[in-house]
Design brief:
alpha+beta, 8% strand, 4 strands, 224 residues
């Protein structure tokens, strides 16, 4: 089953990591994969463009179907292999609704963290303003406090419910990425507890970004 799947991915990319976690959870090891370098511009190569014309990673193909949006790929894999491996979407409609809420809501965390992390890369030098940097950091702080609150109410160590779910598949890589970039464990203890609590889950450990292993953490978010 996995042999008809191809994943071109980049280390440290939360969207790539999501797909890899689902493939592990669904016991779909053995898929065709290739690690590419963002630094070398390999995400703009011909082999990527043939699967993902946006020239972005992941570039994922399941059979003849390209699925380059990580959430779409994860949903597809869970639906197609529902009875295999870990059940990532429960039958309970209320719990399913909460999972969908968190899956889509994490886009806000991604957007607000990205503008802080990559402000100097996104905004031309002549258009940068200290006031904008301040607003962006305040917006990210407020967003992080929301997620800290969600985990404060959760008692299971997971984002939703008592079991590992698609919400964790989607949210965890983003949370891990923030801590890799220096987010304070002291200021956000519940997020830190969540991050550390799932670090050794087999699917996460097996797919841990290789460039993070034994690498010092960045400090970009240390003051957030």
């Amino acid at each position: 089953m996995a042999k008809d799947m191809t994943l071109l991915w980049g280390s440290g990319s939360p969207p790539c990591w999501r797909i890899m976690i689902v493939l592990e959870e669904k016991n779909l090891q053995g898929y065709n994969q290739k690690l590419l370098s963002f630094e070398k511009g390999e995400h703009k190569s011909k082999e990527v463009m043939e699967i993902n014309p946006r020239g972005q990673l992941p570039a994922f193909k399941c059979g003849d179907v390209p699925l380059n949006e990580s959430c779409a790929a994860c949903f597809h894999l869970e639906c197609k292999y529902k009875s295999q491996g870990t059940k990532l979407i429960p039958d309970c409609e209320d719990e399913k609704a909460q999972i969908l809420q968190r899956v889509f809501e994490v886009n806000a965390l991604t957007e607000k963290s990205s503008i802080v992390l990559y402000y100097n890369w996104i905004v031309p030098e002549g258009e940068r303003h200290d006031s904008a940097v301040k607003r962006n950091k305040e917006a990210l702080t407020a967003e992080l406090k929301l997620w800290e609150g969600y985990l404060q109410k959760a008692s299971s160590g997971f984002i939703v419910g008592k079991d590992f779910s698609l919400a964790d598949v989607i949210v965890y890589p983003t949370v891990a990425y923030l801590f890799q970039n220096g987010l304070s464990e002291q200021r956000y203890p519940k997020l830190a507890e969540y991050y550390k609590g799932l670090m050794n889950r087999p699917s996460i450990k097996a797919s841990w970004p290789p460039t993070w292993k034994n690498a010092p953490k960045q400090e970009t978010l240390k003051d957030i």
